[in-house]
Design a protein that fits this description.
Layout lengths: L1 E4 L5 H13 L5 E3 L4 E3 L7 H4 L4 E5 L17 E4 L2 E4 L4 E5 L6 H13 L4 E3 L17 H13 L3 E5 L6 H7 L2 E4 L7 H7 L6 E4 L6 H12 L6 E5 L17 H8 L4 E3 L1 H5 L2 H13 L4 E5 L17 H18 L12
Parallel strand pairs: 7-8, 7-14, 8-9, 9-10, 10-11, 11-12, 12-13
Antiparallel strand pairs: 1-3, 1-4, 2-3, 5-6
Helix pairs in contact: 3-4, 6-7, 10-11
Bound molecules: phosphoenolpyruvate (PEP) and manganese (II) ion.
């Protein structure tokens, strides 16, 4: 249940309500910037409507509250000049890791050529083995920002740890929270206190409820600029890196106001499967794609098997152009070479 307060409700009154709820056995959470209180397990509004400073209540019958469709119908926001959200389709592309100046500038030039507004690239990489390339760190962030500036792109990069928040925030427009950190609840709640949009990837074994609750962790602090990203889940089958869960796209959209992107690169782990799953995801209603590309995929220092070459990426974009009548939502990219 969401409790709304009359304007000018004091902190003492809110504390009084919370104490009353606690004594009745209900946990509650104030969402300060929104001036609301969430009481997830409370079903009977009569118990609190007697407080004169409570203006109204809204019953939300799911464990996740703020990410639910009952809380709001859509989430749309601007990143620089780009409209992102439930009503739009956006593309994010770039290498798994920022490796060299040449690599990242060539990639940025390709994206700019097609008016694709977002460049991605990892500077602090979560690698399964400590002996693998772990990214260029701050130097990588700098290169990414320089390339983005030159080609007027917005940056998406991963934040691995709270200790890097200030640094990453300086260089990025959207903070990516990777699948390994989807359940890092302390990190998530700290991200609620900032205004930078968050792209929250699905945990490798997370069900939809857990994923939406992770989004609630961020929203509880007041940051509602969240994009979900399906990146495949782990299965029992050693032949696929992950199982790209295309079905989760309409499922999430039936439950949540948050936009959902698809990442078929990590979702499949294999370049030749990226295009079919990218197209399937868009037709299933995704609000965009995140695709790993590399000027020379064989030489990529991380995730080389799943990186598309520039040609493969352009072919995918041309195919997507043909899908436009099915996609319906406005796409924030124009494929100049194909027009
Ligand atoms: C990534 O996008 O670079 C990444 C590491 O993805 P994930 O967290 O989904 O594994
Ligand atoms: Mn990767």
């Amino acid at each position: 249940m969401i409790v709304f307060f009359h304007p000018n409700t004091t902190n003492t009154q809110k504390a009084e309500l919370q104490l009353h709820l606690k004594q009745a056995g209900f946990e509650s959470q104030l969402v300060q910037p929104k001036d609301i209180c969430i009481v997830p397990n409370l079903k009977d509004a009569a118990a609190i409507e007697k407080f004169s400073f409570v203006s109204s209540t809204k019953l939300i019958d799911t464990s996740y509250q703020l990410s639910s469709l009952e809380y709001k119908k859509e989430t749309n926001f601007l990143v620089n000049n780009n409209q992102v959200g439930t009503n739009f389709v956006n593309f994010i592309a770039g290498p798994c890791s920022v490796e060299t100046e040449e690599q990242i500038f060539e990639t940025a030039a390709l994206l700019a050529k097609h008016n694709i507004p977002f460049i991605r690239g990892g500077a602090y990489k979560p690698r399964t083995s400590p002996y693998s390339f772990r990214g260029l760190g701050k130097d990588g962030l700098k290169l990414l920002q320089q390339a983005a500036k030159q080609y007027k792109l917005s940056v998406v990069t991963e934040l691995m740890d709270l200790s890097l928040l200030d640094e990453v925030q300086q260089y990025t427009d959207v903070i990516q929270i990777g699948s390994r950190n989807m359940s890092n609840f302390y990190l998530l709640s700290e991200l609620g206190k900032i205004e930078t949009p968050i792209m929250l990837k699905r945990g490798i074994q997370a069900n939809v409820q857990e994923w939406l609750l992770a989004a609630d962790y961020i929203m509880c602090g007041g940051n509602e600029n969240i994009i979900l990203c399906e990146r495949g889940i782990r299965s029992f089958d050693p032949l696929s890196r992950n199982v790209m869960d295309v079905g989760v796209i309409p499922l999430v959209q039936s439950l949540s106001h948050l936009p959902i992107l698809a990442d078929p690169s990590h979702g499949t782990g294999e370049a030749k499967f990226v295009a079919p799953l990218a197209k399937a995801s868009l037709v299933a209603g995704a609000n965009g794609l995140m695709i790993e590309i590399h000027p020379n995929p064989k030489k990529a220092l991380s995730d080389s098997r799943q990186a598309l070459s520039f040609d493969e990426f352009e072919n995918l974009m041309a195919d997507i152009e043909l899908l436009k009548p099915t996609i319906k939502k406005p796409i924030n990219a124009t494929y100049s070479v194909f027009q």
